[in-house]
Amino acid sequence: MDDPVHQVVTLLSREIGKPWTVGDLARLCNMSRATFARVFRQVLGQAPMQYLTDWRMTLARDLLRAQEATLDEIAVQVGYSSVYAFATAFRRHHGGPPRRWQRELTPGRPTN
If 69 and its partner were Cys, which of 25, 57, 73, 94 is the partner (CB 3.0–4.6 Å)? Predict the structure, then answer.
């Protein structure tokens, strides 16, 4: 993996809840937004914000599976300003709301 892209991916993993922009990430790499976006896509095969959304949804699925946090807590942990913004992103990414996905994953287990 290209070194600046690796550094950004590492930072995104550590600070997933921060409201990142492509501009923020490009500045960290001392690149223009366009150059950063092109290099990121070449290295990882997807745009930076798509990568971030995919990573956030992966973490959200893990948190939902664990059933140790409320939707509000999960939303904040994965970088959404509200449970509504999180649920909308989750629905768009997974085709259904987070609680339904959780119920279907673990039938018979109570949800919070």
Answer: 73
CATH code, domain with 85 = 1.10.10.60
Question: What six digits make up the tokens of 37?
Answer: 């976006």
Each residue's pLDDT expressed in tens, for the chain with a length of 112 residues: 668 899 999 999 999 999 999 999 999 999 999 999 999 999 999 999 999 999 999 999 989 988 888 999 999 999 999 999 999 999 999 888 998 888 777 655 554 5
| The model's pTM | 0.83
Q: Which domain holds residue 93?
A: 3-105
C-beta separation of 12 from 50 below 8 A: no
Q: Supply the DSSP string of 51-98, one letter for each residue.
A: HHHHHHHHHHHHHHHHT-S-HHHHHHHTT-SSHHHHHHHHHHHHSS-H
| Contact status, residue 16 vs residue 78, Cβ threshold 8 Å | yes
- What total of structural domains would you count in the chain? 1
- Judge contact between 60 and 74, C-beta under 8 A: yes
